[in-house]
Predict the 3D structure of the following.
Amino acid sequence: MPVGIIVLDLDGRINLLNEEAQRLTGVRAADAVGRPYGDIFPCNINDPEIDPRERRFETAHGRSGSPVRFSTAWIYGERGQRIGVLEMFEDMTVIKEMHETMRRRSDLATLGEISAQVAHEPRNPLAGVQGFAQFLLEDIDESHAARKTAQKIINGVRDIERIASRLLEYTRPLEPQFSKVDLIGLLRNEADLIRSECRNENRSIDVNLVLPKEKVQVDADANLLKQAVLNVLKNAAGAVGEAGRIELGLRWNLLRNRVSIWVEDDGPGIAPDIVDKIFNPFFTTRTKGTGLDLAMIITDLNMPRSSGMDVLAHAVQRRPETPVIILTAYGSIENAVEAMKKGAHDYITKPIDLDLLKLTISRSLQRSRLMEENRQLRTHVEVEQGIGALIGSSGPMQKLVETLEIIAPQPVDVLVTGTFGTGKELVARGLHWSSPRHKHPFIKLNCAALPENLIESELFGHEKGAFTGAIRTRKGKFEAASGGTILLDEISEMPAALQAKLLRVLQEREFDRVGSNEPIKIDVRVVATTNRNLAEEVKAGNFREDLFFRLNVVPLEIPPLASRREDIPELARHFLIERAVVLAGGLTITLDDVTLELETPVAEPAGFGPIPLAELEKRHIIQTLRDLGYNRTRSAERLGISIRTPRNKLNEYRDQGEPIPKG
C-alpha cells in the first residue's frame, strides 16, 4: 500500500514530500520544500519515536483530509548522529477497506467449506435416488396410485439438485477422501443415471458401455469420481442433442498398472459459424456461465466432418500463441510433420501413451509460457531502446521526438548531426527499435575507426582469395544488417573511393563483395551520423555532393545541452539513479550510493599563463597514444577523430623534437 513520507532536517524544515504525501495532504512539494514544518502542518507531528496513532491530517490553511495513521522516527547518519526526522503515514480509509475485504473473504471461505460439504456429499446419492425412482416410474402401470408418488420423488430430488448447484457456486475444492472403488460398478451406475435423464427429457440417446470382464478397483474418492464421470456424460449428451450415441469405456493396462476412462459421442461437433469464436476468451455455447480461455488444443488429425489441419489453421490464424497437439496414426506421420511445419507444437501417435501425453502437454504449456514471456520482454526492450529512451522534456527535445515518431515507420535513410556527446547513436537506435525493422539486426560501423584498406571489406564483405589473408568468404556489415538498420558513424571520415560505392548502395540497393562481380540485393535502412558540417565538407571537396544530398533526405540535428538546460535535472536524475543501482549491489540503496565525490580543481601554478590550445591538443593526443601502446586505430576511436589524424600528428610532433617511437 502506498505510504506518505515527509523528511525534515534538524531545523524542522521540510526536505521531501513524496507523491502519496502530496495526495493525502493536498500540499504540493514545490510549496512546502524548504519551509518550516509548522508553517504547513502545525498540528500533526510530535516528538519522534512514538507509537503509531490515528488522526486527521490538518494543514495551516485549515484543510482536513482523510484519517491517517502516523509514525515518526529519527534519521541517523553514518556516525550515529541525528540528521533529520522521518514522518510516515498511511490512509486509514484504505486500511479499513482492506480489513473489511479480508473479513469478508474469511467469511466467504468458511461459507464455501460448509457449502461444499452440504452440496457434494448428498448430491451423488440423490442422483441415484432420482434414477431408481425413474426406473420405478417406468415399471408402474399408468393407472396405479404409486406412479404419482414416484413422480413426486423425482421432482423433489430435482429441487434439491438445484439447491446443491447453487451452493456449489460458493464452494472451495474439498480434500479427496480415498478408498477402494469398483470402477465397473461406478460406470454402470452413472450410465444408468444418464439414460434415465435422457428418457425423462424425451431424448433418444443410446448409452453403450465398453468394459473389461474382470473386476477393476482403484484408490479414489468415490463421490468426486462419480461427479466427474457424470459431468462428462452430461456434456456428451448435450453435444449429441435429441438423438444419437454415447460410448462410455474403460481401459486397464495391467503392465503399467494404469486405468483410463473415456467417453465418445457422435454429436455434430462445433458448428461452422462458431468455429472462429472458440478462440475468443471466455466464449461459451451455453446459455449461462462463461467459458475459459483456451490454454491448449488437442485434436485428432482425421475426423469425420472436419480435420485437425482445419483446426490448426484456425488456431494459427486467430490465436497463434495457443499450443496445438496433433493425434495421429502411424500411417499419417508425414501429415503430422507437415502440421508441425504449419504451427503445431507436437504430435503423438496412436495408441495414446498417457505418460507421453502428459509430458507433451507439460512441454507445450511451458513453451507457450516462454513464448509469452519472450513477447513481453521484447515489448519491454522495444520501449527501453526505442524513442522513449530519449530523456528530456524541453521544447527542442519534444520537437526531435515528434520528428522521430513520424519518420521511424518510413523506409527512408536519415542523416543525424550533432556535437560530441549529444546522443547521435542513441537516436539511431531509437529509430531502429521504433520502426518495423526492430525484429532485424541493428549493425554499427565507425567509419573513423578502421584503416582505409579494411573499411570496404567491413562494409561489403569479401570472397575467398580476394586479397592476402582472405582465407574464407565473409559477409560484410550490409549483409549482416539485412532487413534491419546499419549505422554509419562519423560518415564524414569515409574515404572518397568508398563514398562512390556507398552512393550506389543507396541508389540501387545492391553492392558487390570485394573480389566478386555478382551484385547482392539488400533491404537495409541507412542511418549516418557526423559531428561535422557536411555542407561545409562538400564545399571543401572532402565529401561527395551527390552522396550528401542522398543522405540528407531527412536531416536530424541533435540539440546540444546548452540549448536545452531545462533537461539537465532529468538527465542528472537518470544517471544518478543508474549509478546508484549499479553501486548498491543489493536491494537497498544507501546514501553513499547516491553521493558524488567531485574532484577539487587544482589551482594554476603561479607565474604560468594559460596553455595554448595547440599544446593542449598535442599533450592529449600523445597521452592517449601512450595509454593505448601507440595503437593509432584505437587511439583515433577514443579521440573521436579520423584514423589518418594520429599518423599525421605523430609525424608533425617528431619534427618538433618529441621522443615518439616509429612504427
